[in-house]
Amino acid sequence: MFKRERPVAGQSGNRKNVFAAALAAAALCLGMATAIAADGAKPEPLLAYGARIIGDDARTRIVIDFDQAPSFSIHYIANPERIVVDLPATAFGFDTKQLEARGLFKDIRYGAMGEGSARIVLTAIKPVKLAIAKVQQDEDGKGHRLVLDAEMTSKEAFAALVKAQTWNGADDQQVTSAIPAAEAAKPGDFVIAVDAGHGGIDTGAIGVDTKTEEKQVTLAFAKALADRLNREPGIKAFLTRDNDEFLSLSERVQIARQNHAGLFISLHADTLKQKDIRGATVYTISDKASDKLAADLAERENLSDQIAGKETVAEPPEVADILLDLTRRETQAFSISLAESVLNSFKDQIGTINNPHRHAGFQVLRAPDVPSILVELGFLSNVEDEKLLLDETWRGKMADLMTDAVKRYRSSVVANGG
Ligand SMILES: [Zn+2]
Fold this sequence. Notes:
The strands form three sheets. A six-stranded mixed β-sheet has the order 11-10-12-15-13-14, sandwiched between helices. A five-stranded mixed β-sheet has the order 5-1-2-9-8. By secondary structure, it is an alpha/beta fold. The protein starts with 12 loop residues before the first helix and ends with a helix. It is built from ten helices and 15 strands. The chain has two domains: about 10-165, Immunoglobulin-like, CATH 2.60.40.3500; about 175-415, Zn-dependent exopeptidases (Aminopeptidase). It has helices spanning about 15-25, 155-165, 170-175, 215-230, 250-260, 290-300, 305, 320-345, 385-390, 390-415; strands spanning about 45-55, 60-65, 75, 80-90, 90, 105-110, 115-125, 130-135, 145-150, 190-195, 235-240, 265-270, 280-285, 350-360, 370-375. The chain binds zinc ion. Zinc ion binds near residues 204, 268 and 301.
């Protein structure tokens, strides 16, 4: 079994400095004393130990208690209307019940973003603005409070707030500058990107029984799978994330491509409304979903960036490029072949759902040149599956079978001159 982990502060000074620079550049920086050490030393994460939310759908106040004065910056994002509060690395130690969405907000998320940073995303039911955003010292002088007073506003006023900020996806820069290298990959090695779904502020699904977060299940399994793959000569597996941090969907794709991955395997354990459905599923990409379940799942997965307060970036228009088209088609054939190899390995060993090879428009499978699959290991909405997902022995067996599948896939590709 594995333990629940508290959000961990960043290790990489490099990334942190980039973020610090991005933060400094951010407009509307209402920060107080900063907790990011200027000399690049690893700062202690702040502790948010309490929270309160009161008010109605005209005015809502949120108060969060910190052990030290937090620096923070605010920005607004449209579609849907959101307020994003960026903080230095923060351990959120209060009970989730203390900050349940109400009043002007229909969803509240908080958690780690990149290393050395955390974020609160408040999704509103209508256009909102913060009348007050400040840090106050407690009366006893021991702690500090972040006070956010939100009030309803007009569509036009909200649009003006969005437009007035120069914040421009600043947090995209921090991660691309710190792509984890596929260490020690030798020429000729078969490089595999193992992608633990969700992370940081995006917890993913929550287990029915033990309330286990999907982001923890996927990370534990990703580590087991990468370790297992790395025991094979000629295979070099690496993780897109190796701790509890948020990565956008395009960052995951980018990390795989920049490390010249020959395969991308994204791992998930979602929930379904139908609690009796259980077993593994392997997905490949397609513009048209194979069925309703696949379509719904892809739609939910693709919300990850929105949950984390990312702006929805319009997809660049498809360029009519015959070469890219050919690459895409070839990659697609390889992805399907890998998916089938994985399902062959599962046969009689691992339970799967009906028609276990499905397809839908998953953003994370969009690399045109890296064969990619998304594996739903099981469903956290099913009590039996949840038990297996938390079972280290089961994880080991699953990792063995997937490694066999990768080896078989690789030899078939080599045999066909790929
Ligand atoms: Zn998921």
